[in-house]
Amino acid sequence: MTTPLRVAGVDCGTNSIRLLISEVAPDGSLREITRTNTIVRLGQGVDETGRLHPDAIERTRVALADYVHDMLDAGVTRVRMVATSATRDAANKEDFFGMTRALLGHVELGKHADVISGEEEAALSYAGATADLGADKGPFCVIDLGGGSTEFVTPSGAASTQMGCVRLTERFMRSDPPTAEETDRARAYVRDTLDGVAPLFENVRTFVGCAGTFTTLSALTQNLPSYDPARIHLSQLLVDDLLATTTTLRAQTAEQRRESPVMHPGRADVIAAGAVVVEEVLALARERAGIDSIVVSEKDILDGIVTSLL
Question: Looking at residues 232-252, what average pLDDT do you find?
Fold first, then answer.
């Protein structure tokens, strides 16, 4: 009997590193084996110093070593790891690449993390986020809100913007909870950044939010008793309900946010900044496309990475 091919995708962003292991069926379809998320804050201080902090690299190394162990246990023979905003911006990124080469080589000889452009990041996110959505729901605009950047992609084009929950927290929203002045400065920055994205919103029928800020907001808006990916995936949220959630979050301290059973502890101190991005994106989507709801997808760039291996 032929051993099924198992492949793995690793996404290393500004705030978290994530793993998806999938098995390839004879017909080419994919069956999820493992999906794991670890907050490592690789982008700690990058916006200010232009360098990856040694502690952040070490946190990422420890998490990736655990992932490599999981891959070997699962029989993975092909792997792709992508590194996004934090490493694109870092002067000492070769320290990071050497670490990934040493670990990923145990799974597939010569492998190391690839730094991908914002445009490729957007395309991979689009492929993953829309995989379970029918074509009749399109045209789509996928919004991948990360720690250092936010990508927007539609059939007509894509844009990568330098705004994410970690970047905005470190640059503008440092108080706990953020002050009104800090929030206003972050909001003004987001609005200015979105000016260049606005043309992409024309003729969009369905907006799809993916990655941790959106999925956490979905769980909170649905008032889930625990984080439930099955109930979050393809959830359709009314804009007004989502805005009520973001308003509440911004007023809370990080410790108050951590009390929620659906909040990852490592996300609690930066999600207020993510909420500002969401609020301004929704305002623009309402203005340009007249939407009253948004779909949240549990699938994202990880699913696009795994598919790219095939």
Answer: 97
Cis before residue 177, ω within 30 degrees of 0?
yes
The DSSP H or E segment spanning 98 is: helix 93-104
Cα–Cα distance measured from residue 280 to residue 287, given in angstroms and rounded to the nearest whole number: 11
Q: Is 41 left (phi over 0), alpha (psi -120 to 50) or beta?
A: left
Nearest to 272 by CA among 193, 190, 192, 155: 190
Q: Chain-wide mean pLDDT for the chain?
A: 93
Cα–Cα distances in angstroms (integers) from residue 203 to residues 21, 90, 142, 297, 301, in the given order: 35, 36, 13, 21, 24
Alpha carbons within 13 A on the beta-carbon side of 100? 22
Both tokens of 272, joined, read 């207020």
Q: Give kind and range of the element (H or E) at residue 296.
A: strand 293-297
At 223, the pLDDT band (50, 70, 90 cuts) reads: very high
> Which domains, ranges and CATH numbers included, belong to the chain?
6-115 (3.30.420.40), 131-301 (3.30.420.150)
Closest CA to 285 of 251, 242, 229, 256: 242
- 3-class state of residue 31 by DSSP: strand
- The C-alpha atoms of residue 19 and residue 29 are separated, in whole angstroms, by 18
pTM of this structure: 0.87
Q: Where are the beta strands (DSSP E) in 116-220?
A: 140-145, 150-154, 157-161, 206-210
CA 54 – CA 111 distance, rounded (Å): 22
Percent of the chain with pLDDT over 90: 78
User: How far apart, in whole angstroms, are the C-alpha atoms of residue 165 and residue 149?
Assistant: 8
* pLDDT at position 85 over 70: no
Q: How many residues does the chain have?
A: 310
SS3 call for 45: coil
